Every structure is written in structure tokens, then in C-alpha cells.
Amino acid sequence: MSAETGNGDVPTRAAPYGGGTGANRVFVLARGGQPLMPCHPARARELLTRGRAVVARQMPFTIRLRDRALEASEVDGVQLRVDPGSKGTGIAVTEERRQAGTDGETRTVRRGLVSIELRHRGEKIRDCLLRRAGYRRRRRSANLRYRAPRSLNRAKRAGRLAPSLRHRIDTTLSVAGRLCRYAPVTEIHVERVAFDTRAMDTDRYGDGHDIGLECTRESLAGAEIRAYLLATHGRACAYCGASGVRLNIDHIRPRGRGGSSRVSNLTLACVTCNQTKGVRPVEEFLAHDPARLATVLEHLKAPLSDAAAMNATRRQLGEDLCSLQKPVHAWSGARTKWNRTAMGLAKSHTLDALAVGHLDHENGAAIVRVPAQVIVVTATGRGSYARTTPDRFGFPRLRRSRIKRHFGYATGDLVRAVVPGGRWAGVWTGRVSVRANGQHRLTTAGSRFDVSHRNLRILQRADGYGYGLRPEAPS
């Protein structure tokens, strides 16, 4: 059943609101820039057509009224719900109303107005920092090998987070702050979940003996770990099945590719398979034997890096959200899962965000509306501070331009291109990557090509994020 009735703001029929899926609401600003209640896209098109509103922002789409002030409007308020994650964070703008059912009882219904999936770039930041550290270490050891090592006397302030972790908090806070400017947010609900990495990393013997976190580099050669692997894998090579031969302990995910020394990442391999596999991914090494590959992958467990990142940032995220001057409520992950399962919703960051908070579904409260599309916000950064482009050894290869804006455009701007002719003739919308000669590179949803700056028109200045749309997961 469609969730849209009339203009989508209020039901037009006498029957109770049945719910379903619908389009993302459009943010509305008053004449003075204050946020009003979001409206249906059809209502926004009508206001723009009649000249009563102008476009204030493209993504997320926001309009500003010309003829109405905040004092002349009725604002009920909305809620902001956040489901933080390591690689992505789900954010939902919702409203809750009291509604009478068919039996005459009054229940609370929750309607999802806007769904946003924020994709972090923490892994890219970590890789860039590791690459920079490698460059510096190599230059120091090659050119200054007689200098004493740098002293390790630099203390870190209390509460400091690594840049890749701090980025997750800053981007979530940035998007939440923008939504508070576009919508009349009255309260913020955030999921605060803690992961027990000890329990996640525990393997057991048949007699219940734990050998999870004790697997260190020194203990790999010990009899305890080897005996456990021999008993688990039947004293045979996991890659070829050979038995009665010399067996080595092998990392399923090579350490050179980010694998750890956890017991779940260890297996037994004969000398031939161990040398042939090397640092190749196990999927590539066993591509010819899918059945054996599936057996090997069964022993793998999810990496603990995501759980550790969540444990390190969960408390700081809640404290920083308080800086938005809104009441912040923290909820457990178990309650979110309970609400999502009771409402029959699929598993995704945005649907988890929609289910964050108290929902008395045992007494009739329900989530009656889910946005059909999700706004995907990808953290792209604002460019590099490096003055040169290094080669693979870390030495400068060429100088980078200090000018970031060419012919009025900067990398990351959202533009509309009107190409008069040629292979790419037509109207295109996407993000632009600028060049000094004026032939900018335009990236759209399904293509990438060069276009002259004369054929471009700015829609939205670069803000460090890329925007897109995707359908919501079916429930």
C-alpha cells in the first residue's frame, strides 16, 4: 500500500493511516532561514512552480519560502535517529504522531521522512597515514642511516583518537548538524553499542578451554596452538588434503594483506602449498576448488578492527552530539534489533536508524512509513595538502598546483553540463574534477568524460561529500 495520500503531509481519508513506502521528504526553510516541517516532493514542486519558493540546496534537496515566516507556520518537530557504524552510518529523520486505530485506541506511529547513509573514509585515511610513515621511514634509513632513532618521548593527550577514528565522529557530527539546520529537530536518538572482543575472538577445545587472544607471535610456535590446529584440521593440509607430510602453520589471510594472527585466521598447509600460496589471497589460490575454498573460509571470523573502532568512538560520539544543543538519548543495539524484527524490516544501516529508540510495539506502536530511496553521502575530503606527487619510493615526482579553482570551478562541485554535440551530447549532472586548461572531467552516475568549462553551470559548491541515491532494502 502506498504511503502517499494527497500531498503526503496528512491523510485525506477518514480511515487510519496504513503506511508503506514513499519518497523522501523535501526540507523547507522559512523566509528567514529557519527550518519548517518537511513537505512532500509534489508540494515542493507546486511551491517552486508558483514562485513561492526557491531552491536553497540540491542535496539533500531544500527549498526556501519567499512569503512565509516562522511565526506564521505550525512546526511540530522531528527526531533525528543515528545508527553509527565503522564503515557507514545510518541517519533517519522521523516524526511521531498519536493516531486513533480502527478499535478506537490511540497509538503512536513513527514515519520515516528522510533516510541518509553516510559512508566514511576511515580506511583510506589509515592507508594514507601508513604510506606517509613508510615514505618517511625509508628516506630516513636511506639518507640518514647514521643518525640516532627519534626519541619516543612524545606523549599523547588523554582522550586522543587516531585520525581515522576521529573522522568517523566528525563526519557524523557534521551531517547531523546540517540536518538540524534544515529540519526542526527536537531530539536526537543514537544507538550506543559495545562489542565484547574477547567473546568474539574466542575459540575452544572440545573440553571448553579458551585459546582466543593468547595467540601471539611468540605462541604460534608453541605446542598448544599447533595441537589445536592439528586436532581441528585432522592433521592434513587444508589446501590439498595431503596427510602424513610436514605441515606448516599458514595465515589464511596473509599478514601482508591485513590478516591477523588470530587462531581463526590460522590453518595447516604442506610445504608446497605454503610456498605456492605466499601472499596471494586464498580466494585466488583456491579458485579452482570452490568446495575446499568454502571449507577454509568457514574457519574465518569477522575482523575485530570494526568492533574496536566502534568501542573507541561510541562514547565520544554521544558527547559531541550534545554540542548541537539538542536532547540526546542513547539506546542499546538490542532494542534496535528488537524493534526492527518486530516491524519486519530488513537489515541495513538506514532501517536500523529508523528503529533506534523506544517503540512500544507491544501496545500497538508501529513504524508506518519507510522512505523508498536512501540518500548516499560519501565522505570524499577536500583535496590533498601535499605539495608534490611522490613516486613509489616516496620521492617528489612533480609539483602540484597551488590553485584549486579554475574558471570558477573547484574539484567536487556539483554541476550541470549541457553538451551541444558529439558523443556525449545531452544534459548531464555530476561532480567535476577541474583542470588548468579548462577541460574539466565530469563524473556522473554511470560515465566519466571531459567537458569544457563553458558548458557547465554550478549547482552546489563542494562541501567534502559526494551524493547519490539508492533504493532501500526490501523488507
Could you please describe the fold and organization of this structure?
There is one protein chain. The protein is α/β, with parallel strands linked by helices. 25% of the residues lie in helices and 28% in strands. The chain has eleven helices and 24 strands. It has helices spanning 41-49, 122-143, 163-182, 197-200, 223-232, 271-277, 282-285, 290-297, 305-321, 333-342, 349-354, and strands spanning 20-22, 26-29, 35-39, 53-57, 62-65, 78-83, 88-100, 106-119, 185-191, 247-251, 266-270, 328-331, 366-371, 373-379, 388-390, 396-399, 405-406, 409-410, 414-419, 426-433, 439-443, 448-452, 456-460, 465-471. Strands 1, 6, 7, 8, 9, 12, 13, 14 and 24 form a nine-stranded mixed β-sheet that branches. Strands 22-21-20-19-23 form a five-stranded antiparallel β-sheet, with no helix packed on it. Strands 3-2-5-4 form a four-stranded mixed β-sheet, sandwiched between helices. A hairpin with a 5-residue loop joins strand 7 (88-100) and strand 8 (106-119). Helix 3 crosses helix 9 (305-321). The model is unreliable at 1-18 and 204-222 (pLDDT under 50).
Question: Considering DSSP H and I runs of 4 or more, what fraction of the residues is helical?
Answer: 10-25%
Radius of gyration: 28 Å
Number of helices: 11
Q: Based on helices, strands and strand pairing, what is the structural class? A: alpha/beta
Summarize the biggest pleated sheet.
9 strands, mixed
Q: N- to C-terminal separation?
A: 13 Å
Number of strands: 24
- Approximate shape: globular
Instruction: List the uncertain runs.
Output: 1-18, 204-222
- Beta content: 25-35%
Average pLDDT works out at 84
